[in-house]
Every structure is written in structure tokens, then in C-alpha cells.
Amino acid sequence: MEKISLEELENLMWKKYKKQISFQQLQKEFLKNDDERIEYIKTELEKAYNEKNGDSVYILCKLTKEEWHGKHEDIVFYLQQLELPSTIDCIYELAVSNFEKYSWDDNFALVRKCCFALGDINTPKVKEKLESLLQSDEEMIRKHAMEQLERYNFSD
């Protein structure tokens, strides 16, 4: 199957967001299933990382805001590997996203992975974001944030 570029993927996502195409059309025009899409995105991001291409990381951050897929934890893992300060806001926003599909998880696994990704970036801004998570009503979210605050010193 011929693969499309990340720019073409972004255009398809915007069409889907604007309800110009259906989810099925998006899938058909991109790849057959989530696993293929994520593998392709991972490959493109690794290539972008090696080439220092910030646009591709930006697209990945856009994917964290989309609820139509179930690969948020995989995306956070890739962002964690990159350790880019430019992804702090996107990781934090995913941590507080409250997607309905994750409401069953009392352990807040996605939030925990976001906290680990933030911790690995280890900057003063990350400390602020983790401290903000300490204000959550959910005990497990506070626990995950504290785990990282205790793990790092958060200096530049």
C-alpha cells in the first residue's frame, strides 16, 4: 500500500474534523487500521527526529487531541523518547483531556504515562505542569504527578 505524507495526513484529519469526510473515508485514504497508522507515524517521527523536523512533532501533538483513535499511550511513549521541551504543553493537555474512552481506568494509566513523559523532559516548566496536576480531585492523578516531582530536580 502506498503511504501518504504527514502533511497529507494532516489535511485528511482537518477534513474529518470539519466533517467534510467520514471516519471511514479517512481510514481508507490513510491506512487500514490504527496499528498501521501508528507504525507509519512512528516511522515518520523517527525520520523527522533524525532530520530535526519540528513540523512532524507538531502533527503528533495534534493527534494527542483527537479522540477517534486509541493510541494515545503509544503517542506519549514516542514523545517521551524525544524529550523535547516543545511538547510539554501537548503532553500536559493530553494528561488533563478526560477523553470518555479512558473514563473506566481508575489507575489513570494514560495520565501516568504523560507524567513520566513530562518528568523525562525535566525542566522548570514541567515542574509547574506536574504541580498543577497535584490540584486534581483524583488521588491517583496526584500520586502520578508526585511520583515524578520526587524523581527529578527540574533544573534547566
Approximately how much beta-strand content do the residues carry? under 5%
Order of helices and strands: HHHHHHHHH
Kindly name the structural category: mainly alpha
N- and C-termini, Cα separation? 44 Å
Largest beta-sheet details:
none
Tell me roughly what share of residues is in helical segments. 55-70%
Overall pLDDT confidence: 80
Q: What is the radius of gyration?
A: 16 Å
Q: How many β-strand runs?
A: 0
Number of helices, counting only DSSP H or I runs of 4 residues or more: 9
Q: Extract low-pLDDT stretches.
A: none
Morphology call = globular
Walk me through what this model shows.
The chain is mainly α. It is 65% helix and 0% strand. The chain contains 9 helices and no strands. It has helices at residues 6-17, 23-29, 34-51, 54-64, 72-82, 88-95, 109-121, 124-133, 139-149. Helix 7 (109-121) packs antiparallel against helix 8 (124-133) and helix 7 packs parallel to helix 9 (139-149).
Quick tags:
156 residues; mainly alpha; 9 helices; 65% helix; 0% strand
Topology:
Layout: H1 6-17, H2 23-29, H3 34-51, H4 54-64, H5 72-82, H6 88-95, H7 109-121, H8 124-133, H9 139-149
Brief overview:
The protein has 156 residues and is an all-alpha fold. It is 65% helix and 0% strand. The chain contains 9 helices and no strands.
